[in-house]
Amino acid sequence: MSDALLEVQGLTVKYDVGREGFWGQHQTRLTAVDDVSFSIARGETFGLVGESGSGKTTTGRAVLGKVPIASGRVMFAGRDITGVQGRERRAIRRNMQLIPQNPYGSLNPRMKVREIISEPLVVHRRFKSAKGATERVVELLELTGMNPDDMHKYPHAFSGGQRQRIVIARALALNPDLIIADEPVSALDVSIQAQVVNLLQDLQRRFGLTYIFIAHDLAVVRHISHRIGIMYAGKLVEVAKGESVYRVPVHPYTEALLSSVPIPDPRIERGRSVKVIAGEPPDPIHPPVGCRFHTRCPLAEPRCREAAPPLEARTPGHEAACWVR
Amino acid sequence: MNRSDHLLEIRNLEVVFPTREGTVQAVRGVSFTVDAGESLAVVGESGSGKSTLARAALGLIELPGRIAGGEILWRGRSLLDKRVARRIRGREISMVSQDPMASMSPILTIGTQMTEVMTRHLDIGRREAFTRAGDLLEKVGIPDPGRRLGQYPFEFSGGMQQRVVIATALSCDPMMLIADEPTTALDVTTQAQILELISSLQKDLGLALLLITHDLGVVAGACDLLKVLYAGEIVESGTADQLFHRPHHPYTAALLGSTPRLDVKADRLMAIEGHPPDLRHVGGGCTFTPRCPHATTRCASASPVLQPSGVGRAYACWNPLNGLQGRDPSHGGGRA
To answer: Which one of A120, A131, B21, B316 is most buried, by most CB atoms within 10 A?
Structure first.
């Protein structure tokens, strides 16, 4: 695939979480992401959905090189960037930016907006100082719907939605190709959330940006994404176009997840039978053998308990990992 | 004693929080009633005053906050009287809040905490309360209640903790349950479980439910009646069907338009430009004016009052929408 901007192959990430055994002789490892593969085309929005602990954030961090990769490869613009560190990593990071969830935690309260937005420009030696970058800062503030005078203020002067705009302005400073947005609107009220989602879509059209949009809210993800990947307990269980995931879900977990999302329409809600799935996601340190979902799956068969099903194409562009369907 | 035929009646409630930068008017003249067995949702965004309202209904406004005006009546008795409120809270009205860990002590077992509530409010001994606690856990879908009663809150998952909180809330056979964002901290599949539990308990036990939430999706399935709160005021009220399908207030319509839907693919969400007002400096006129696409000069100068339009339906707007006509179909939120 030549038009893929990002290709993730068999990505596995493990965290050390303590020691086991009488003498503490065994390292306990938690597999946060297990053999995950997907690719993203230039200009596309790839939505990564899952519940807490599904590995969606870790996947994003692994792409950014912020967590060590146990196995697998990350290819960016045709180049293998797995485990690249130091100066080379910095060069890559110019093209890959993160929009984190909490706009309160991600802005230094002691820096003025101009310093915050120009920081990447200074770090990457585009400009010598925040002052020198003023023109670019003004341009970025205008792009994100802020007032240029805002650059002289501190973050505390802004609401959550405005702060997220500042975070977006900073992420755009170096003209990146890929933006990894990790729950970028989860902390915002719905009316403000809509403003930020619209802004992200406008910026994508204008600059041909590629997004990985990580979120737990399926409705937002479906709205913004071209393709969606569903994660469960560290595994990617289904990947397809947004429309196909919603219309013809293959994996029983996808189906249950979709059914759990309430629809803001009382007539639909009354007529709808919610497929409530019992139980909870498995312990990530001791995940079940076989398909991770078999402990809660209504369709589980003996083979589901024996081996993990591979992610395979069902129809062109629609992949799922399930033995039964 | 005041007369009221309703279970809960709130009249012209005003709640203020003095701060160094001025007094925040969190709830501004809110009136509504809840009858036995009714399910009512109060929807609003951050700062709309919805949680303050819930706390006020339990007599839980704490200093520096204060009730500056109005009346809260529970079966005709004023909850502004702290002694009355203390007797009723946890017994006749109970509450489930967003963060289950904040409602429980981390250093006491579930069994101890549940029995404490019952021995305090009901005329029963510890042993009987303990048996009852086990039955309640079973009722809210916690397997192996006998063992679970001896465990501490941290040994439960978020969804299970919320079930424990619900069981505790039900332990004294209350008449009304106030649920303040009960599923906001939970994953969506767990949310579905908890919402189903609350709905079925409400119906089975004939409880009145006051659900406080920001999520229109949650409301649609859980409640019959709906109040929309903006900047401390009710801007529209009616049945869920009326408000979802024929909103009169532009804010209600905008809230619906800005909510992405899983079942309808919109090209663009209908964002509400601007921000909610600063409740320390509320002037005259409708507070939604600066963000309202239908605002006229009148809106900025005179405050519209909540006026009834048909049975159980009211709105506070000078230029009401008749339904969905007010919404541009080329924008998001349009129905497929």
So the answer is: B316
Mutate to test the interface with A, among B230, B262, B265, B270 (most CBs of A within 10 A): B262
Number of domains in chain A: 1
Q: Which residues neighbour A26 within 8 Å (Cβ) at sequence distance 6 or greater?
A: A19, A20
* Residue A228 near residue A221 (C-beta atoms within 8 A): yes
Any CB–CB contact under 8 A between A279 and chain B?
no
- Looking at the partner chain, which of B262, B266, B272 has a beta carbon nearest the beta carbon of A261? B262
The alpha-carbon gap from A264 to the nearest alpha carbon of chain B, in Å, equals 4
* Residue B336, domain member (yes or no): no
* CATH classification at residue A310: 3.40.50.300
Q: Provide the ipTM.
A: 0.84
Domain total of chain B: 1
Token pair belonging to A300: 């589980």
Q: Indicate whether B297 belongs to any domain.
A: yes
Is A280 within 8 Å of chain B by CB?
Answer: yes
Does the pTM surpass 0.95? The reply is: no
Residue A177, Cα to own-chain centre: how many angstroms?
Answer: 15
Domain for residue B181, yes or no?
A: yes
Shortest distance, CA A75 to any CA of chain B (angstroms): 31
pLDDT tens for each residue of chain B, 336 residues long: 456 689 999 999 999 999 998 899 999 999 999 999 999 999 999 889 999 999 998 888 888 899 999 999 999 999 999 899 989 998 999 999 888 888 899 999 999 999 999 998 999 999 999 999 999 999 999 989 999 999 999 999 888 999 999 999 999 999 999 999 999 888 888 898 899 999 999 999 999 999 999 999 999 988 999 999 999 999 999 999 999 999 999 999 999 999 999 888 888 888 888 888 888 888 788 999 999 999 999 999 998 988 888 788 999 999 998 753 433 333 333 333
Cα–Cα distances (Å) from B39 to A13, A82, B221, B268, in that order, read 46, 54, 11, 33
In this complex, the residue of B159, B195, B272 whose CB is nearest that of residue A191 is B272
Considering only alpha carbons, which residue of chain B is nearest residue A186?
A: B184
- Do residues A77 and A39 make contact, with C-beta atoms less than 8 angstroms apart? no
Identify the domain containing residue A274 by its residue range.
Answer: 4-95+176-320
User: For residue B55, what are its two tokens?
Assistant: 């706390």
